[in-house]
Structure prediction request, 496 residues.
Amino acid sequence: MPETAAARAPAGLLPSLAPLLRSWLPDQRWFAGKGRPVTGFSLVSATELLPVRGPGPGLLHLLVDVDHRPRPAAADPTPGRHPGADPDHDCYQLFLGIRRTLPPALAPALVGRPTRGPLAGLTVYEGLRDPRLAEIVLERLRTPGSLGPLRFAHPGPPPGPPGRDAFPVPPGGPTTRPLDADQSNSSLVYGDTYILKCFRHVQPGPNPDLELPLALARAGCSRVPAPLAWYESTAPRRYTLGVLQPYLRGSRDGWRLALEALAAGAPFTDEARALGRVTAEVHTALAGELPTVRLHGARTARLTAGMNRRLDQAARQVPALLPYAPRLRAAFDTIAELGRRGRSWQSQRVHGDLHLGQALYGPGDTGPGPPSGPHRPEDRDGRWSVIDFEGEPARPLGERRRPQPPVRDIAGMLRSFDYAARTHRPWRPEWAERCRDAYCEGYAEASGADPRAEPELLRAYETDKAVYEVVYEARHRPDWLPVPMAAIERLAAAPV
Prediction:
């Protein structure tokens, strides 16, 4: 593909797009500023992946900084500003398709029609919804190199003879489709071969969803699909923008399998035990490949101060937490006191947002046909994979990259079993408890350390996770709020 870099934005580009983006952005599932008014925009970078004034559709890659600060009515709506200067600004990655007229099949992707500026008279739409433009993105990833402020990279030469294609594509090109399940990002599936995750709300620095799978690939851990390519912005700041990985054809996620087991009245303990072993395997590989630290003294104090701060913030946003706050805080204070007495815990890089939806169970064979579910306990370990190492997107990137005790991930999975059980009517608390025990047993079998042997730390992390869930559900899915609130009530009643 010819390199038609346009690192410099055409004059008047962002002012002409601003009215369209002000209406379109808040409606996107990945927009992080829900409930906050958009008060301005700044252009971080603009790159033409396909010429916008060419004979076919154009593709414009933008990094746009969105301002949420209240401003005087006379203020410039698109002021220049360095991105990331304060929490009232968010940076987003956009792929804007440009056509004269939009085919009916792409009508739902419409962003709008600028009335002025360099795109006046053209139609702007969500480019990743256009299979033709989505193929251009994959094509660009095939060759390492730079295009304006964008850098495309591979982990190394492809295996096999020199000159072998890193991403072989069937004749006629792959069938491309967006993965509608994504919420905080956008993913494209190319045939049954590749999946490209494009990060939408980006923060400066390495993204763990690239950093950790690369480390696991170096460690020889096969539980995580190894990155095949990625791209990033190099100026004015470094942002990880997207990662290409193998697509695990025929896999189903653990959440769906758990719900099927509940609906059938079947146990899920074998699967939970296997997941515990797989989690321990991933943790062991990460600890061997990346630096570890001891959590003690000042580090413990900072950890528990963060937990208390999040609890205070959550209670202000969700008043239903207020009656439980003192008992919940006691769980955090217990860890702080243990730290003052000299107790320490190993900390390392972890998944950061582990739950049943982040575990994929592969089919029993690699041939065509419908995916098969778990059957033999002895082969369950080998068919589980772990994905999405981004961590909780609402948390700052620096916090997500900080070493944590492995129990952070364990607490997330234990909460996920509880969530699954709560979806069933009548509620099945005993199902969740059996899964929780089996998961911890599996983890202990593979790691030699049973997470239940540190009940204070496990309770603190489970409490912190439940507090996070309360805020998330209150903001996005109020009907689900009783699920984490039941956990809050249980955790607050537990002896300290």
Summary: The mean pLDDT is 88. The chain has twelve helices and 18 strands. The CA atoms of residues 354 and 410 lie 8 Å apart.
